[in-house]
Amino acid sequence: MRINKLLADLGVASRRSADEMISSGRVQINSHTATLGENVEETDKVFLDGKLLVRKEKTEEYYIMNKPKGVVCTVSDDRGRKTVMSYLPEGCGRVFPVGRLDYDTEGLLILTNDGELSHRLTHPSSQIPKTYLVRIEGTLTEKDLNPIRSGVELDGVLTKKCKAHIVETNKAYTKVHITITEGKNRQVRRMFEAIGKNVAFLKRISIGQLKLTGLDRGECRPLKEQEIAYLKGL
Ligand code: URA
């Protein structure tokens, strides 16, 4: 098994964060410093910051959170900002966020120590639809959304076709539901910037069929068995 997968399975970090730990020389396999992409055997001893990681039977935990804005989507923040971890229920294991929501974005976030599921949900090939509620200052027409639907250029690449429709509009603001199947950095904000609109409010309201319904801002609950099974089937 790859060393980053083992660290994710042990609930130490997501695969991406595990890679960062490996790159910075914090991980040892037996008596040598681990390298990116290295494989480990059942019998190998793995250390993080010199501490032996015990490969005990793992119990997987899955949570759904309504992330508030003004909170970072990481396990710890080097700038000392509040992280999503502070909204987890007491006594929960070492879970980590699946993917990211911006500091200023709120809404549906999954947290788990199931590295396999996390990897699959965030992999670019997964194409899982994620729906966001967007509020734009001022008016906007359905026609204005056409470039967003057909694809706008971000970092020199066209975004994939997506669904977008207006749910409310008046002189002051317009609310849009947009469903994308990609996860580029600040994608929704940048898609609207590409049509000259500034996103004033952004909230993820669903991942596939999984909805945020019933969870107030900052609330978090364990996922139900059928919800976990649904996500595993995506
Ligand atoms: N798109 C964004 O712009 N921000 C997010 O947090 C998620 C999607």
> Quick one: how many beta strands?
15
User: What does the overall shape look like?
Assistant: elongated
Order of helical and strand elements: HHEEEEEEEHEHEEEEHEEEH
Calculate the terminal CA-CA distance, rounded to whole Å: 23 Å
The fraction of residues assigned to DSSP E strands is 25-35%
Quick rundown:
By secondary structure, the chain is of the alpha+beta class. It is built from six helices and 15 strands.
What does it look like?
The protein is an alpha+beta fold. Helix content is 19%, strand content 28%. The protein contains six helices and 15 strands. The strands form three sheets. Strands 5, 6, 7, 8, 11, 12, 13, 14 and 15 form a nine-stranded mixed beta sheet that branches. A four-stranded antiparallel beta sheet has the order 2-1-3-4. The protein has a two-stranded antiparallel ribbon with strand order 9-10. The radius of gyration is 20 Å and the shape is elongated. The model has no long low-confidence stretch (mean pLDDT 94). Residues 101-102, 105, 186-189, 202 line the site of uracil (URA).
